[in-house]
What does this fold into?
Amino acid sequence: MSLVFKVFALLDRQGNEEGNVVGRLPRQYLVENVNALAAGKQSIPHA
It folds into this structure.
């Protein structure tokens, strides 16, 4: 499993913060969170 080590702020369509990550995050979690936001879901799966 590859890990991403960065700082991310996940925003909804209005620019409100839905979550953030500092440190290691499995790439798959990042992809699933971004996909959920892009689909307009009310929450992210890995908050």
In short: The longest helix spans residues 27-38. The mean pLDDT is 80. Residues 3-38 form one domain. The longest strand covers residues 17-26.
